[in-house]
């Protein structure tokens, strides 16, 4: 049976459930899927495809970026997909970055305050600004698929400096913005993006390890 790894980084925990939903969708194609926090990943060579997900935390989660850089050679022969969770995305009409089409959760982007002139925060929260560091980390490999989705923000789970950053720099209101249909729609396309045949006869299988 073909094996897929869904490896995630998280700060406050909400990306764990996103990773699990992604894994469930992939497993519907008769693939065996392991869900692991990045720091528990041992042997990538055991997998036929790898999904790496993490939240925007003043740039994409540092551990996720480090993971991609560390394994960029492996991703030359094992296909890679990447997902990002975020609370703020400027509506710019961008649908691809570096030539790679990106699945954008349609509920996430917000139009700029003044049409045609982005302020500092809106420029920061552009799709290309978020995703270019990820593509630099995987170079020369291009992910087979990329998606960006709303996340969840709860001030009560954060340290004081994190609260200040999201209140004043991101200006993201707290709340639940995970869009499960969008997440699952993207994930359902991953077996095809990885060019793995559907072998439904095997039955779905998800093995999750969460903190
Ligand atoms: C310190 C901090 C920085 C963040 N930076 C960004 C950001 O730059 N852009 C964005 O859209 N969301 C940002 N967020 C929101 C998170 O990406 C979002 O809440 C995510 O779902 C958190 O995932 P987690 O619960 O797995 O940690 C930030 C949140 C925190 C706490």
Write down the overall mean pLDDT: 93
Secondary structure category = alpha/beta
Bound molecules: flavin mononucleotide
- Cα-atom radius of gyration: 17 Å
Uncertain runs with pLDDT below 50, 5 residues or more?
none
Q: Level of helix content?
A: 25-40%
Biggest sheet character: 8 strands, mixed
Number of helices: 7
Q: How far from one another are the termini?
A: 26 Å
Number of strands: 12
* Morphology: globular
Q: Strand sequence of the main sheet, in spatial order?
A: 6-7-9-4-3-1-2-12
How would you explain this protein's 3D organization?
This protein has 7 helices and 12 strands. It has helices at residues 14-27, 62-70, 120-124, 127-138, 160-170, 180-188, 190-193, and strands at residues 3-8, 32-37, 49-55, 80-86, 89-90, 96-97, 100-104, 109-110, 145-150, 152-153, 175-176, 205-208. Helix 2 (62-70) runs parallel beside helix 4. The protein starts with a strand and ends with a strand. Flavin mononucleotide (FMN) binds at residues 10-15, 55-58, 85-88, 125, 151-153, 158, 162, 165-166, 170, 172.
Brief overview:
With 211 residues, this protein is an alpha/beta fold.
Any descriptors?
211 residues; alpha/beta; eight-stranded mixed beta sheet; two-stranded parallel sheet; 7 helices; 30% helix; binds flavin mononucleotide
Write the layout of secondary structure elements.
Blueprint: E1 3-8, H1 14-27, E2 32-37, E3 49-55, H2 62-70, E4 80-86, E5 89-90, E6 96-97, E7 100-104, E8 109-110, H3 120-124, H4 127-138, E9 145-150, E10 152-153, H5 160-170, E11 175-176, H6 180-188, H7 190-193, E12 205-208
Parallel strand pairs: 1-2, 1-3, 2-12, 3-4, 4-9, 5-8, 7-9
Antiparallel strand pairs: 6-7, 10-11
The structure holds flavin mononucleotide (FMN).
